[in-house]
Amino acid sequence: MKKKLMQVMLLITASLFVLTSCGNDDDEIRIGIIAPLSGGASLFGIAARDGAVLAFEQINESGGILDRQINIFEVDDEGAVPVSIAAYERLVYSDEVVAIVGPVTSGPSNAVAERAAAHRTPMISPTA
């Protein structure tokens, strides 16, 4: 599990190098996390969220990415497709994240993946 998480975080980090070169002058890199933090699948959601947060904290502690810190925005999707879609829209349109980690269950992940692909938003689902 730890090896897979590190592979996912390395992929996210590589993607962020590309994203940070897109002319954004912000001092931070905004990343959204969508996971079931409550409900029947919360065990998986909390573990995925905690792993991503730990990796991002380690990246920030080592200087960030190109001297920019990662700012995390997390949303509980309750493992439900409609809630997950609303979470994606909030993260992308209101919070203006540049990438998404999650969702972590299949139904929400498939629904969000369609939107992320259409909007060209990088998305990594660590468990689905």
What are the main properties of this structure?
single chain, 128 residues, alpha/beta, four-stranded parallel beta sheet, 4 helices, 4 strands, globular
Describe what you observe in this structure.
- A 4-stranded parallel beta sheet has the order 2-1-3-4, sandwiched between helices.
- Helix 3 runs parallel beside helix 4.
- Strand 1, helix 2 and strand 2 form a beta-alpha-beta unit.
- By secondary structure, it is of the alpha/beta class.
- The model has no long low-confidence stretch (mean pLDDT 87).
- It is built from 4 helices and 4 strands; from the N terminus they run αβαβαβαβ.
What is this structure, in a nutshell?
With 128 residues, the chain is of the alpha/beta class.
> What string, H for helix and E for strand, traces the elements in order?
HEHEHEHE
What spatial order of strands do you see in the largest sheet?
2-1-3-4
Enumerate the spans where pLDDT stays under 50 for 5 or more consecutive residues. Answer: none
Number of strands: 4
Name the beta content range: 15-25%
Radius of gyration from CA coordinates = 14 Å
| Quaternary organization | single chain
